[in-house]
Batch of 4 targets.
Target 1
Amino acid sequence: MVLVLLGGFVAVSSLVSAPYTELVPGDALPVSSLITVPPGRAHPTHGKVLLTDVGVQSLRYLQYFYVRLFPNRINTVVPTGALTSNLPESEFNAQGTVDMAESQLTAKAVALRQLGYPVPERDVGVTIYVIDPGSPAWRTLQVGDVVTSIDGIPTTNPKALQDAVRSRQPGDTVTIRVGSISQPTPGHDVSVRLGSITVDHKNVAFLGIGDPSSQIAAMGTQPVYDFPFPVSINSDDIGGPSAGLAWTLGILNALGGGQLTGGRIVAATGTIRPDGTVGDVGGVQQKTVAVEEAGASVFLVPVPELATARAMASSGLTVMAVGSLGQALSDLEHLGGKPGDAAKGPPPGPDGHSVPTDWQQSPWS
C-alpha cells in the first residue's frame, strides 16, 4: 500500500507544475555575428565581445522537490510570481522584448556618440511597459505600443500623456495614435472609452497606463535618434535589457578599429543609459558560469554584481566592475585593448549627451 501511494505521489508530482522557476546558466554569444554596420565602415575584429543571458526553466513538483533536496551553488530557484511580478506570461514576455529593443536603440546612440558622431535625440511618445489588467487600455493597447498623441494632442512623455487623459471626462471616447519602438511614427489610430477612478475624492478619467490606482502600471519616454548611418542588431530571440553594455562595446569594436579587446574574449553584462551609465542586472551567478564555459577571460559586470560574480568565477576569469562605458573602455585599454576611434568621446552639446525626459523613471533603466 505504501509503495502504491508513493508511486502515485511521484506520478502526480512529475506532471503537476509548481509555482517555481529555476534560473540556470544560459548562452554566451559573440555579438559580432549579431551586429551589422555599413561595409565601408567595418573593421576586422580581433578577439570577441560576448553577451550572456540566463536560462529559465519552469519546474514540476518532482523537479522542485529534487532541487530542494539536492541544491547546488550555480542554479537558483525563485517563486515564479516574484520573477514575473504576477503578470500574465504573454505580458511578461512582451516586457522582455521591449527591454531588448530599448537596449539596442540606446546602445547604438551611445556607441555612435562615443565615436564622435553627433546623434540628435527627440522625445516622440510614451512606451507602454505594463497595462493595468481590466482597464480600458488592457482591451485595446499592448505592451510595446508607443502612444504619440491623444485626440491630436502630442504625448511626448509620461506627464503629457497623463495630463491629456485627465483633461477628459470618465466615459469619453478618445482617439489614440499608436506606433512601435522601431517605428513610432506615423502610427495608426485606436479608439478607447476611458474609465473612471477616484483620486483625492474626485472621479477622474482612467486609461490604465501609469494611473495612480495601479501598483504595477508603468510607462517611459520613447526617444528617436537621428543616426548618421544605419546599424542593425539581431537579438537572436534574447529578451531583457542586460545586453546593453555588450551591444555598445560590440558596435565600438566594429566601427572603432577592431582592437578593443586586445585579442581577448571579453564578456559583458549590464544595462546602458543614454549618458553611458551602466546599470545593474540579474542572474550574474548563472551568467558567470556561462561566460567561463564560452572561454571568456574577462567579465565586465555592473558594480553591485561584482561580489557575486567573483564568488562564482575561477582563477582563470578576471571579473571587473564598471559603472560607465568610459570605465569599461579604460579597463579594456589597461588590459591591452586599443579603443581606436572610441577614444574620441561624445561631441559637446545635446547631440552628445541628451537623455530622454523622465528616462530615470523608465522601467528598463
Target 2
Amino acid sequence: MMELEDEGTPLFDPARVFDVCHVGLVLRAVLGVQLLLALGVALAVRSPLQWALGMASGTVVTLTGVLLWLLLLCAAKRPLARLSPLLQWLAVLSLGAVCGLAGWQLLNLASDEPSGWFRLSGVAASSAALAALLLYWLKLRERLQRPADALARLVELQSRIRPHFLFNTLNTAMALVAVDPQRAEAVLEDLSELFRVALAETGSVVSLEDEIELARRYLAIEQLRFGDRLRVQWRLDAAAGSARVPPLLLQPLVENAVRHGVEPNDGGGDVEILTRSRGAEVEICVRNTVGAASRQQGHGLALRNVRQRLRLMHDVAARFEIERNEQGFVVRIVLPR
C-alpha cells in the first residue's frame, strides 16, 4: 500500500487570526476604535467644542496605538499562534497597553508637565481593554470564516479525486468491451451509475450506505478484470449505514486496496470491507493483503484527501488510523454517527 505523505498545508492556519496587515481590516479596526472614542468623549464633555478638542487629542493616542498594535501583531503572528490561548490574551493585552502608552507619550511630547501614575495606569488599562475587544473580534471573524473555507476545501479535494476515479473505471470498461462484450454490458451499467454519482452535484455529506453501494459497483468492475485474483469480503453492520460521511470517502480506499494489494501480485489478494456501529460512533475498516511486490511507494493522494475531508467534516471527533504489518494493510476510520 502506498505511504502516507505529510499533511501539507494545514486546513486552518492558527496564525491567520493575527494576520491583520490588510487595508480593509486596518480600516475597520481604526474606525471601530474611533467610534468608541467618539462615544466616550461625548459622555465626558458637555459642549461640541470640548468634544472636538477631546477627539483631536484622543485621536493622536488611539491612531498611534492601534496602528502600532496592528503592525506588531502582524509581525509576531507566527510566535503568537504557537502560544496557548491564555498566553495569547496576556501577550496581546500587554502589547495593547504598551502601544497605548506610546501614543500617549507622542501626544505629550510638546508638554513639559509629567504624567502621573494614575493617568498612565488609566491609559494602559483603557488600551488593554481596547486590545481585548479587537482580539475578540479577530478571533470571532476567523471562526466565522471557517465554514466557507471548509466548503471551498471540500470542493477542491473532491475535484482532485473525481478525475482519477473516472479515468480508472473508464479504462476498465474499455478493456472489458474488447475481451467479453456480454460481460461488458453489465459493466457499462455499473459504470454509468458510477459516472452519475461522480458527476452529480452532491452535497457535502452522503450516507455510508450510498458509499458502500458505490464501492460495490466499482469492485464489480474490478472483479471482472481480475477474476479469482480479487477476493472480496463484506462484513457490514446495517445499523451503521445511516452514518453521514463525506462523498467519495470509501471508493478511493477500496481502489487503493485493489491497486496496491491485488494488482501487483500474481496470486492476487484479499480485500475486506467492514462497518460496525459502536454506540454513538461508526467504524469503517478497509483491509487488504500485501505481497512483496506491492510494497511500493505512491503519492499518498487518496489517503491524504480522505483524512483531510474527515477533519473538515468532523474535526477531532473523527479518527483516521493506518496499520501496516507483514499480513496486510488496514485503514480504519471512526466517526460520530
Target 3
Amino acid sequence: MIRTLLLCVALFSNYTARAEPPQAPPLRILTYNVLYGFNHGKAPEIGAKWIADQKPDIVALQELNGFKQGTLEKIAKKWNHDHAIILKEKGFPVGLTANSEITVIEKRLDGMWHGYLHCKVKGMHIFVVHLSPSRHAFRMKEASLVCAKAKPLLDAGESVFLVGDFNCNSPLDQKWLDARPKDKEIIDEKTAKRRAGNSDPDSAVMSQFLDLGLIDLVHAKQPTAELQRGTFATRLLPKYRTDEQRKHKAWRIDFILADPTLAKRCSSARIPRDKEVDLISDHYPVEAVFAK
C-alpha cells in the first residue's frame, strides 16, 4: 500500500512538472550604427555573426549604406530574423529586423536629416532614428517631430521604444562631461564655426525625449565609469586605438530609450565591447534585455 502511494505521488509530481508551461525567454533588443554598411562594406559577415551570437529578438540598424530591402532581408536571416524593413535605399538608411512580424507605421524623410522608421513589433512601438551629425538646430527640430509622434502613444499607455544614433549628449552625463579636461587643440576659423554649430548646449536635444518620461536604460543599469567609455568611437578609428587616446574623448551618443513600464521590465542594459565590434563599426552597439 505504501509503495503504491509513493508511486502515485512520484507520478503526480512528474506530471505536474511536465504540465507547467515553459518559462518565456527574455526579450533582447539591439541598436547598432554599423558605419556605412558594416565598416564600408568590409565586414558584413563579421557583423552578421556577431549579431547572431547575441540572439536578439529585435535589431535596429543605422548607416545601412549600400543596402536595399532585399539585401537587408538576406543578411537578417544570418541572425535568424525573417522580418526586415529598410527606411530607404539611398544615403544613410536606418532599418529594423525582428524574429516576428513587423508592422510599418511610418517611414518619414520630410524634415529629417536621415529620416526615421516607426514600426510595431510584438505589440510595441519602435522608433529608429539617426539624427543630424553636424547641426544642433536641425537635431532640435528632428527631436520635436519625433516627440510629437511619440507623446500621444505614451499618453495612451502604449509600449514605446526610441532607439538609434542620436548624435547628442545626455543631460544625465553632463556632470562627468563638464569635468573633462578642456580641448586645447588649435583649430582654424572654419572648423571652430562648424563645431559651434554642432554643439549641444545643456543637452537640449536629449532633454526633449527625457521630458516625455522616456528612460535611458543604459544610464539606469550601468555605473558612471562604464558610461564614460561611451558608444563612440571604437578602436577602428586611428585616433582611438589606445586607452590613452580614448581617455576623455569618448562620447555616449547611441541610446535605447523606453517608456517607464518597459523600463521596469528591463533586467539589463549594456554597451557590448567584444573585440569583434572594433572591426565592424566606429560605434559600439547598445543592448537591453527585458523580462517577459
Target 4
Amino acid sequence: MNDDLVVLRPEGLYCPAGRFHIDPWRPVPRAVITHAHADHARPGHDAYLATAVSAGVLRARLGDITLQGLAYGEAVEIDGVRISLHPAGHVLGSAQVRLEHRGQVWVASGDYYLRGEDDADADADPNPTCAPFEPVRCHCFITESTFGLPIYRWRPAAEVLREVDAWWRANAEAGRASLLLAYSFGKAQRVLAGVDASIGPVFVHGAVQPLNDAYRAAGVALPETRALPELRERRAGRAATELGRALVVAPPSALGSAWARTLGGFSDGFASGWMQLRGARRRQGVDRGFVLSDHADWPGLQRAIAATGAERVIVTHGYEAVMVRWLAGRGLRAESLRTEYGDDRVEGDDAGAADAALRPPVPAA
C-alpha cells in the first residue's frame, strides 16, 4: 500500500491523508497554494490556503476567491495532517508547504530562490521584495529544477541591477526609452526595487501596475510607477521628452507588439535567468540581456536540497532527468513527477512561451 504523503493525481499533487491538493492545475475542493504565478495558482478551486501576505496578489490575479491566509510558520491541521508554510524566497508570499503526518515530514517547495555559493555573499544577496528562503528539515523534499544545469550560476543581483542602471542612463542621455522585459509578477517588482529611480521616470505596462499596487499594500518599497496610458494623455512634446528618459517595464509578451511600437525609438532588454546563454538573447532579438532570476541556480538547488537533510527527493519540473541523475549519484532516493508547472499555456502575460523558446535542450545522459 502506498503511504506517500503526496502522490500525483490527474488534478495535480495530492495529499491522500489530508484530502487536499498542492498547486493543482484542475479545479479541486481544497487547494494549498505555494505562490501566485499562473502555473501554480489557478482559478476554479472551492477553497484556497496560502500565505496571508500573498492574498493581495492572489486576488488581483484570481478575483474573489475563498482564501484562508497563514503567517509564515503558523500551523493548521487538516484531517490529521499538520500543515505550515515557510518562506521560499521566490516572489511575494511564496512558500514551501511542510506536511507532517504519523511521524513523516514532507516539504513541497513550489519554486524557490537562493544563490548557491556556500559563503557569506550568498546570504547577503536576498530578494528584497519577499522573505528569504528558509531551509526546512524533512524526510522527503519535492523540488523544482528550472535551472538545474551546471551552467546556471548567478552573479549577485546588485551587480546585474547596476548594469541595468548603466544601460538606462546611456539610453536617457541619448534621448531614447529603455524597454525592459520582465515577468509582470515577481521579476518586474524585483527590478523596480533595485534600480536607481533618479535616472528618469518609470512607466509600466498595464499588466504590471496592479501587481505593483499589491506589493506596496504588503509593505514592499517600490519607486513611483505610472501606467503608460497616462503618458499618452499628455501633450505630445512633453510625452516624447519623458519617454526619452524613461525606463518602461513590461512583460515579455509586449515584445514586438503594437503597444511597444507606441514608444517610438527605444532600446530593449530582457531580465531573465535564461540570459545566461548567449544564444538566448540572440533568439529573442533584444539589445541587452540581464541575467536575473527568481529561481535557484545549479549550486543553489544543491545547497537547498542538502539543507533539508532529506533522504528522498522528488523533482517536479525543469531539468528533471539531470537533477535525478545527479542526486542518485550521491546516494539519495531520487525520482521525478510529470507536472504542469512551467507550462507556457497558462502563463499569459508572464510569457512562459518566451521561456520555452529560450530553454536549451537537455544534455544526453
